Amino acid sequence: MSSHTGQSPTCPLKLLERLVAQQLTIFLTDNGLLLDLQSAYRAHHSTETAVLKVVADILLALDCSNLALLSLLDLSAAFDKWFASYLSGRTQQRANTDHHVAAITCRAWSPSRIGPSPTC
Questions:
Q1: Taking the C-alpha atoms of 87, 120, 9 and 84 in order, what is their torsion angle to the nearest 10 degrees?
Q2: Do the Cβ atoms of 41 and 21 come closer than 8 Å?
Q3: CB under 8 Å to 94, separation ≥6 — which residues?
Q4: How far is CA 55 from CA 51, 72, 80, 93, in A?
Q5: What is the Cα–Cα distance from 114 to 120, expressed in whole angstroms?
Q6: Tens digits of residue pLDDT in 8-22
Q7: DSSP-derived secondary structure letter, 111
Q8: Which phi and psi angles does 93 have, rounded to 5°?
Q9: Which of 10, 58, 92, 96 could form a disulfide with 117 if both were Cys (CB 3.0 to 4.6 A apart)?
């Protein structure tokens, strides 16, 4: 369903999401609440730098004849399933300028697949 401007209703939500993320990042950075090794949602930090740090730590441990163990857990699929089940079947209503009320059915969106909406 499109608004009168021809944009998808998800476009303003994506903008709001980016604004909130930006403000939260500034707050966390200014108050020293981000860990030095945290890579997510930080400028000049990527998954590549995080992986390089992990590999370097493992190699250092092995060079010192220590045991190194790496355990990885991907919860994105579980979160997507919970999010989809939470939204399924929910509806909202909105009224336009001529007071016509239209029902809006929520659909599942995958928060783990970051990126712009294909309709934006």
A1: 0
A2: yes
A3: 101, 102, 104
A4: 6, 13, 29, 51
A5: 14
A6: 556 777 888 888 888
A7: T
A8: -125, 150
A9: 10
For residue 116, pLDDT beyond 50: no
Strand ranges, E, within the chain? 91-95, 101-105
Residue 15 CA to chain centroid, in angstroms?
13
Write the DSSP string, 71-96: -----HHHHHHHHHHHHTT-EEEEE-
Does residue 25 contact residue 41 with C-beta atoms inside 8 Å? yes
User: What integer pLDDT is reported at residue 117 of this predicted model?
Assistant: 46
Q: Are 8 and 120 in contact (CB under 8 A)?
A: yes
pLDDT digits (tens, 9 = 90+) for 23-73: 988 898 899 888 887 777 677 788 888 889 999 999 999 999 999 999 988
Task: Report the distance separating Cα 80 and Cα 51, nearest Å.
Answer: 24
Instruction: Note whether 94 and 106 are within 8 A (CB).
Output: no
- Measured from the Cβ of residue 30, the count of other Cβ atoms closer than 10 Å reads 9
Q: Is the pLDDT of residue 84 over 50?
A: yes
